[in-house]
Specification:
The chain has 5 helices and 10 strands, in the order βββαβαβαββββαβα. The chain has 215 residues and is α/β, with parallel strands linked by helices. The chain has a single domain, classed as Alpha/Beta hydrolase fold, catalytic domain (Rossmann fold). β3, α1 and β4 form a beta-alpha-beta unit. The radius of gyration is 16 Å and the shape is globular.
Length: 215
């Protein structure tokens, strides 16, 4: 039944990955994958922003998968500072391909965006990409997005105007350097976690997906 949530365990490169699937329409043209924020700072697939992204994509009838990165929740393995987590995203794409055989829309929040965009840009199965709260500099963790310069898939970047981990000049430079097509939306008054602005986040994603030519 579309919209039903199923608990899953999917195979990952470091062991089993805990996941949730929002079921979609039987004739869905696409599936969706959503990646969560930094697991060492409380990030899991149950994060409110991740849930909002999943609801937005599932609203189109797309089966939508969320999963916990290695070492988070019931997922096996240990955190690898983004290196192994790229492989976790690929494992989730493998599972979606095996189950549904349709193109995938990827969405990631914060660390999930940094890691997932890197995996999805290089993977032909992902045809459109969403980065919410894309982090630029967080304490001693810097993020490199030079790979976006060669990524010609449709991309939506959405960030709060008060995002403490994505200073406007730095984020604008990253988006400016990214290949077309792309869109950058700032949600006024929102911080990194889009507190009080989740409806705007969801509406922005829905509008962007609606305007994509997915056929």
């Amino acid at each position: 039944m579309p919209g039903e949530i199923k608990a899953l365990i999917i195979p990952g490169p470091a062991g089993r990955l805990e996941a949730l699937l929002n079921t979609g329409d039987a004739d869905a043209t696409h599936a969706a994958l959503v990646a969560h924020p930094h697991p060492l700072y409380g990030g899991t697939m149950h994060n409110k922003v991740v849930f909002a992204l999943a609801k937005a994509l599932n609203g189109f009838g797309f089966p939508t998968l969320r999963f916990n990165f290695r070492g988070a929740g019931l997922s096996e393995g240990k955190h690898e500072s983004g290196r192994g987590e790229v492989e976790d995203v690929r494992a989730a794409l493998d599972w979606l391909e095996q189950e549904f055989h349709v193109p995938v829309i990827f969405a990631g929040f914060s660390f999930g965006a940094a890691v997932g965009l890197r995996a999805a840009c290089a993977d032909a199965r992902a045809v459109a990409l969403i980065g919410a709260g894309v982090p630029v500099q967080v304490e001693d963790r810097g993020y490199n997005y030079t790979f976006l310069r060669e990524c010609t898939k449709p991309k939506l970047f959405i960030s709060g105007s008060e995002d403490e981990f994505g200073p406007r000049p730095a984020l604008e430079a990253i988006v400016a350097a990214a290949a077309e097509p792309k869109q950058f939306v700032r949600v006024e008054g929102a911080g990194h976690f889009f507190e009080g602005k989740l409806d705007e986040l969801r509406g922005t994603v829905e509008g962007w997906v609606r305007n994509l030519k997915l056929a």
